[in-house]
Amino acid sequence: MCLALPAKVLAIDAMTDMAIVSLGGVRKDVSLALVDDVRVDDFVLIHVGYALNKLSEEEAERTLRLFAEAGLTAGEPA
Amino acid sequence: MKYIEEFRQHDLAHQLSAAISKAVKPDRSYHLMEFCGGHTHAIFRYGVQDLMPPNVKFVHGPGCPVCVLPIGRIDNAIALVERHDVILCTYGDVLRVPASGRRSLLKVKAAGADIRMVYSVRDALRIAQENPGRQVVFFAIGFETTTPPTAVAIRQAQAEGLGNFSVFCNHVLTPAAIQNILESPEVREMGSVSIDGFFGPSHVSSIIGSRPYEFFAEEFQKPVVIAGFEPLDVMQSALMLIRQLNEGRYEVENEYTRVVTREGNTKAQSLVAEVFELRRVFEWRGLGLVPYSALRLKEAYAALDAEKRFDTPAIAAADVKGCECPSILRGVKRPVDCKLFGTVCTPENPMGSCMVSSEGACAAYWSYGRFRRPETASRESVA
C-alpha cells in the first residue's frame, strides 16, 4: 500500500500546483501540494496521485557506490 | 526505469550476498524484522532470503494498512453503502478484504452497491463534484505515506464547500505499532519471537523522517535501518543491521538516503497535523487495541467526518475460524503454519487479510515462496 514510484517531472502548472510526470514513459497528472521547489527534470516519488518527495540523485549514486564497496570488501581475504 | 533497475542488479546482489556471508558471526543468529509489506514483497519476489546465510532470518511484521484493518471497520463501510446509500470510494486493496458473514466490499458491489475503486483521493473528490445529489464517502486507509494526500483532499473539500463529501478515516501510525510489537509478551517475556533489529519503513519514513525511530533504538536497544523497497536496498540494510549487531550498537541508520531525511517532509507533516488528531485507541488486527495509534479528523473538520455524519458504531467482529493472520502479523507464526494457507485461502479467494494485499506475508509466500524446497523454507523459521 505504501508503494511509491520515482517519476520524472515533464511540466509544471503553478496555478493548479499540478505536474505532468513520466512514470517509465507513461504520462500522469500528479499533485505537487505536498512538496516545495520542484522543477522540471526533477525526479519525484509518486503515491496515490501526489508527489511525496524529491529524489536526490547524489544520494542515489552514493548508495550505489556503497553496494559496490560492500562487494569489494567481500572479495578481500578475511 | 531510473532509480529502480539500478537497485535490482543481479551482480551487485551476489556481491552483497558474499559481503553478508562474510560479515555474519557463525556462533549467533540474526532475526531481522521487516515492518513493511513492501520489504516482505521484495524479499520473496527477488529471493533475497536465499541470498542470506542460514543464520540470517527475516521476521515478517504487520505489513500493510489493509492487513491490520479490523473486520469491524469493513462492516462499518458496508453498512454505510447499504443503510445510507452513499457512493463509497476506496483504494483497490480494501475491496477484497473479508468482512463478517463471508462478505467483502467487492461482493457487496457485485450485488449492486455503488462502490468505486479509486487510484487517488482526488478521484473521490471529482466523483463528489460530479454527483451533487449523492453523499460520497472516501474510505481512507493507510500509514503515514497515504495520510498526507487525504489531508490535502479534506482541506480542498472544506475550501470548496463540498457538502456531499466525507471521509471514513482509518489512517494508522507506524511508530505506535512498532512499540506495541516490542512491548508484546511474545517478544519481551516469552521469547517466542526473537527480534534483533528492524528494517525501518521506506515511504512512511519519507514523510515522518528517521527521527521517530531514535526512541525505539534507544529504549529497546535494537538497531533500526531505514531501508528502501528494492532488493539491493534490503540487502544493504541487512548488512548494516548485522554490522551494528556485531559491534553491539543500536542506532538508527538510513540506507534510503535518496528519499529519507532525519526531518522528513515537514510540509506534509504540518498538513496532517492541521487536519487530524490522535485517537485515544484504535483496534489493529493481530495487535488488538493499540493506544494512540490512529488518526481522526479534528473538530474544525468535523463536518467532513463520515463517523460524525453517519452512524458508525464500533463493531466487534471475529476473524474467520482457523485464520492465523493475527499471529502472522506479529511475527509469531509463518503463513505455512496456517491450516487455511493455500487450501481454502488463496489470493483469488482470501479468508484473511494477509492473503489480500500483495504486500501481505501470506500473499507473498503464495506468489513466490510456495514452490521452494521444504528444507529451504524451514530455514526461515522464526523460532
Description of the structure:
The complex is a heterodimer of chains A (78) and B (383). By secondary structure, chain A is an alpha+beta fold. Chain A has 1 helix and 5 strands. Chain A has a 5-stranded antiparallel β-sheet, with no helix packed on it. Chain A starts with a strand and ends with a helix. With 383 residues, chain B is of the alpha/beta class. Helix content of chain B is 40%, strand content 16%. Chain B has 18 helices and 13 strands. In chain B, the strands form 4 sheets. A 5-stranded parallel β-sheet of chain B has the order 2-1-7-8-9. In chain B, helix 1 (10-23) runs parallel beside helix 13 (231-246), helix 2 packs parallel to helix 17 and helix 8 (147-160) crosses helix 14 (266-275). The longest helix of chain B has 16 residues, at 231-246. The two termini of chain B are 39 Å apart. Classes of the chains: A alpha+beta (78), B alpha/beta (383). At the A-B interface, strand 1, strand 4, strand 5 and helix 1 of A face helix 1, helix 7, helix 8, helix 11 and helix 13 of B.
Radius of gyration of chain A: 16 Å
Order of strands, widest sheet of chain B:
2-1-7-8-9
- Low-pLDDT parts of chain A are none
The secondary structure category of chain B is alpha/beta
First-residue to last-residue Cα separation of chain A: 42 Å
Topology as H/E string of chain A?
Answer: EEEEEH
Share of residues in helices of chain B: 25-40%
The biggest sheet of chain A amounts to: 5 strands, antiparallel
Number of strands of chain A: 5
Shape of chain B: globular
Task: Give the count of helical stretches of chain A.
Answer: 1
Oligomer: heterodimer
Number of helices of chain B: 18
Write a short abstract of this structure.
The complex is a heterodimer of chains A (78) and B (383). In chain A, 24% of the residues lie in helices and 40% in strands. Chain A is an alpha+beta fold and 78 residues long.
Summarize the topology:
The complex is a heterodimer of chains A (78) and B (383).
Chain A: E1 5-13, E2 18-23, E3 26-31, E4 43-47, E5 50-54, H1 57-75
Antiparallel strand pairs in A: 1-2, 1-4, 2-3, 4-5
Chain B: H1 10-23, E1 30-36, H2 37-45, E2 56-63, H3 65-68, H4 71-84, E3 87-90, H5 92-95, H6 105-110, E4 115-117, H7 121-130, E5 136-142, H8 147-160, E6 165-171, H9 174-183, H10 185-190, E7 197-200, H11 203-208, H12 214-220, E8 224-226, H13 231-246, E9 252-254, H14 266-275, E10 276-278, E11 281-284, E12 288-291, E13 295-297, H15 306-309, H16 325-329, H17 361-369, H18 374-378
Parallel strand pairs in B: 1-2, 1-7, 3-4, 3-5, 5-6, 7-8, 8-9
Antiparallel strand pairs in B: 10-13, 11-12
Helix pairs in contact in B: 1-13, 2-17, 8-14
